Structure prediction request, 474 residues.
Amino acid sequence: MIEVPSSFALITILDEIGRWREHHERDHAATLGEIDREQAIARQALEEAQRQLGAIAAIRREQERAREALEDELIRREREAVRDGLRADREVLDDRATEARAAEEAREAELEGHLDDDPEMEAALGAVQKYREVELVLDRMPPSYRRAVREQYDRARRRLEPVIAAVNAPPPPLDASTIGIGVVLAMQPPEGRPEALVAVLPVPFAVYQGWAARPEDLSTTLAYRVVAAIFRLLEDVGASEAPVRFLDVHGSLAVQVWLGDSDVPDDFRERALDQVQRGWDDAVELAAASVEVYAAWLRPELLAEAEAR
Amino acid sequence: MSGRVASLKRMRIDEAARRLELHPFEVVRILARAGQLPEDLRLEAEDVENVRRLGGLETWWDAEPVAERGEPQARALLRALVHKLLAEDLVEPRSTRADNLFRGLGADAQVGLRKAVNLLIRERYLVSRASPAGLAISVRAGAVDDLRAYVSRGAGPLAVAAERV
Prediction:
């Protein structure tokens, strides 16, 4: 058995070491306890911050949804405004057409009165009307008869020249305030190389679809002028073969041109505007009815029918 | 006696369209493309003839074709139409406006002719293509012999298909 040497001094030192160790262990334990508490506090704070982050993210998503809904609502309102604007302009133009027709009928009635007072004129008118009845079959008549009928017709026309000039003069101007109506233009896509052009007119679709059953009026002539402008434009830009369709957009007549297969110039939009503007610059009947037409470019999605709600 | 003065007015576009058996927008298209649309949108009788010329309008019928003994009218129309298509030498790439095929016929005969045209397109004797003036029609190059056989002898595959009209 090995004898362990000991002495009081050694024991004392060992005791001190033991106490030193206990002291430090207590310190460490206290410090670690403190750290644990701090960690718990920090973890709690982190969890709270994460909860807050989650809540903020949810609020953000909600706001984004609200913003999208706002955009939809904006488009819906703009579409509604376009539809209402076109309808209002259709009604305005229709009212002016009624007034213009009445003014023209009044002028014709006055001219009729002059005819009643002039038997020579009346006879000449009878000769013209008779000619109209046989005009289409005249080529099948003997040459001498044909010549005689034509000579008689020419004499009658010369006699009627003042009446013919008066009845074919520009429409009588209306004593009415000037009104403005809009033609809506849209290009798809709105920027860059155009693939489609749409013009929506403030005239009913019946101007196209039901033309045979309705009188030619201001709405019809406006449509003729825009249609002519579009075909002139296509000719001008070398796209005369581009397909053209006539559509019903919000109850109004729309002219749609497919340009996807045509190589149209960069200034197509400017040329389109020039041509349609020229269309109503020439329009004596619109000027007489105190109707001004303006064109407005809109985003194409505003011309789509409102989605079912 | 109202309307006497109105009879002295120059023609409206819709009146010209009725005379030409066209839609008024087509009258506008033809004149606008040629730069000849009058500013006041009123036409003289000679303008109507001008539209006819500029637009390539033709009146193909001055009377309905006479049906042979026991032949339905629709088949008489088909036979007469094929004869006219060959006589006009409308073999692709030459073509004519589809509405030319109908001009001059009464409403009932037009319905019968439409069936005949549909049959010829369906059976690939005719080809159609979209144009700004509407459909344009041509005889398919490979179909000429069969069409000739039908017109001259009432024979060939078209004779069989024609039994359906």
About this structure: The first helix of chain A runs from residue 8 to 116. The mean pLDDT of chain A is 90. Chain A touches chain B through 42 residues (CB under 8 Å). Residues 116 and 203 of chain A are 38 Å apart (CA to CA).
